[in-house]
Automatic annotation (TrEMBL):
InterPro entries: 4pyrrol_syn_uPrphyn_synt_sf (IPR036108), 4pyrrol_synth_uPrphyn_synth (IPR003754). One of its GO terms (biological process) is tetrapyrrole biosynthetic process. Its EC number is 4.2.1.75. This is Uroporphyrinogen-III synthase. Residues 15-206 form the Tetrapyrrole biosynthesis uroporphyrinogen III synthase domain. SUPFAM superfamilies: HemD-like. It comes from Aureimonas pseudogalii. GO terms for molecular function: uroporphyrinogen-III synthase activity.
Length: 232
């Protein structure tokens, strides 16, 4: 069993903790981000469907469901489950990465754009995958992931059972926040702590002294990242 530091915002961190527990690991939760909901108005025109690449988009989509048309497209099973729970009846599910969604959207052969309920800070994989000649996207930013700085007491409580065996880093912002945490309190975390990064782009946001301990997920999604914990 590995003790794994999880720095996602609190709601997502709890889901990750459950996924780690199913793999026999223990999660140490120390959120370095918090989600702030935005409240833009829904578009005036009709859309071919809605797209969510994060569970954090679902509250806004649910609040405006009556004004939206077409199926809902989810990046993966976890986001799909949140959409179903919010009342969306027709949910199509990608393979776990935003890059898997353009093909699903293109298969609809829609004449209207798809509404992409996005985060203010995000990777542009979906937009790049659709491109100029692919499915049209109407991007509406509905949430923001803001930095969160824990107190020393909170960090000590999260690590009270001893230092972690590994840390999960799922975004560039998390990588930078983790590096700042280590610099602020170097006595709390091992200098050679293995850092399991969702992508090479995430690892690249670490300072060089930390990057040498980064391991990048082979599958490019969260299940692949979690499956790699504890492997040599």
């Amino acid at each position: 069993m590995a003790r794994v530091l999880v720095v996602r915002e609190a709601g997502s961190a709890r889901e990750t903790a459950e996924a780690l527990a199913r793999r026999g690991h223990a999660a140490l939760l120390l959120p370095l981000q918090e989600i702030r909901r935005l409240d833009p108005a829904p578009p005036a025109g009709e859309v071919a469907g809605v797209v969510a690449t994060s569970r954090h988009a679902v509250p806004w989509l649910a609040a405006h469901r009556a004004a939206l048309q077409g199926p809902a497209f989810a990046v993966g099973a976890a986001t799909a489950a949140h959409l179903v729970a919010a009342g969306f009846a027709d949910v199509r599910t990608g393979s776990g990465t935003a890059a898997s969604l353009p093909a699903l959207l293109a298969a609809e052969r829609a004449s209207r754009p798809f509404l992409y309920a996005a985060g203010r800070v995000r990777r542009r994989d979906l937009e790049a995958g659709c491109g100029a000649d692919g499915p049209a996207l109407l991007v509406v930013e509905v949430y923001d992931a803001a930095p969160r700085r824990p107190t020393r007491e909170e960090a000590e409580a999260a690590l009270s059972g001893g230092p972690p065996d590994a840390a999960l880093l799922l975004s560039g912002e998390q990588a930078e926040a983790f590096a700042a945490l280590v610099e602020q309190w170097p006595d709390l975390l091992p200098p050679a702590l293995p850092l399991h990064c969702l992508s090479a782009a995430v690892a690249a946001r670490l300072p060089a002294v930390r990057r040498q301990h980064a391991q990048v997920a082979s599958g490019g999604d969260l299940p692949a990242l979690l499956d790699g914990i504890g492997e040599p």
